[in-house]
Amino acid sequence: MTSILTRALGAPINLNHRGHYVHWGVIQISVANLVVIGLMVAIFAAAILLPFPKGRGRK
Amino acid sequence: MSTATAPVSASAQRAAERNWQGRYREYDLVKEFVVALVAVSVLSVALAALFSSPDEKQINISQWSRIAPNDFVATAATELDRTSGTATYGAPYTHDPSAAQKIGPITPQNWLGVTHPIDTVSDFVVRPLSQVAGDPALTAALTQWSAGSATQQEGWASAYDDALQKAPDNDPNKVATADYGPVPVMLSSLLKVAQSGGLDGELLSQGKFFATDYTKPLLFIADGAYLEDQARAEHLGGDQWGMMKETGNYPGQAWLWLYTVWYQVKPFSTSPNADALVWGLMMLLTPASSSSRSSRVFARFRGGSRCTG
Amino acid sequence: MTAPAASRSWTVAVRQRAVRAFPPDQLLPDKQPIYVAAWIYVFGVLTLAAFLVVLLSGGVLAIEGPQWWHTSSTGHFFNSLHLWSVELFLAFMVIHLWGKFWMAAWRGRRAMTWITGALCFAGSIGTAFTGYLVQTNFDSQWISTQAKDGLNSVGIGAVFNVTNFGQMLMWHIVLLPLVVGVIVGVHVLQVRKRGVVPPIDVDPIDLIPEQGR
Lengths: 59, 309, 213
Known about the structure:
Chain B is built from 14 helices and 1 strand.
């Protein structure tokens, strides 16, 4: 069981390489953080804009 | 979602205060929570399986002293002549009220006093060396040190520290010849103790068995250049927005952006009181943000907004 | 059997107070106002769900102790689970905060909901911070030696010693989760008490109850 877990648990995407950064004036942000923040903004926008499934029973 | 140009109206406020008398819909709260739990669990497992998590190896004093022996000895010299970062820190480590950072006229750093006293000479150098047995040259050096007056000790230590700064590559073997008393023998012995792993144990245990407080070994390592060099190579420095970052390509603590942004801009970035000014500011902003009154003011300034269902 | 109204029993008093404040069908309602049918409203429960995953994954790490994950791939996996569930927890919380801010969710006597929410946010940041301190790797060494300067400069470091691993571990796994957990509980009860805040521009048609309810 442990060996199956061990094989399954090796990360296919290795993020341990040298980091990538975006410099914009005084701002210096890692690409990873930028992706996370970008996703959050996109999800927020989607939450506002996407329609919610119509409810079954209205009272 | 549309953005209103008018602030939150009184009628909107009143509508919010009344118990909702309008239309309802069936809503299964427990099912919603279970669905959310399953979704988040699946997402967490997927992210963990795909990306794992970073685990950069610890740096102990033994490694540091073997990889960067000159940096180690130079740091030990500053501990001995009390010019290191720790020795000149002030509260809560040393009794020097003038060393405290200021917010205007006040120095909150001093308010609770020295609660974790550190004497860099005895804690980092003399005490660890006094545990070494079977080294007559070291024993003689320590005897000479303790027999010297405070002025003599300071003289020896400062002279050696200055000479080390001037030596090419801070190499102890290239220090100019002069009278440094017992200091060169003490520091070269300390290097051997460090390289053998003895200093890691001694600084942590302080003669006890169980130990969970790493303050002394951490402060010693942080007084050197090696730890910071490794951190800056990973863009973790304070002036590199490091507070928000993680090693490698992992996302870090992005939510700390408002804490770290001040360190990047003037007047904070060039101030010797940067920490006190930034943290003092954040101690004001954090409770202010939790106040609904200040949030209301901000929303009104921004014109409010409408989030419709 | 119902106690008389003038009962001196503390148990009865507590029970009556609790039921008065939170009648069962308000504590666990099976219907919500029509405006709750919007995606922006799910981020609170997503945050709560992520909090539970954080606690459970942290609990597994506690079984084997703070060094387990360095030498065990199973331990490393649970560490990864803990890290990513924390990232999700904070992400959902911030999106929840954005939504609540822009809909001025403190309206309608909901100031305590807002305040407890802000305290949850601050408390979670502190908990995450102590988590980074107890990884027992290079990151912990760097973060502790840097953070000490900020905290020492305002006097907090004199009692909250970030380089004291034992202290930070206990804050991270005992004190802070307890405090944050209690505040989260109060926050959720506040939402049940006052109801979910209506949007700023309520559609007038939704104000009219349906016929034949």
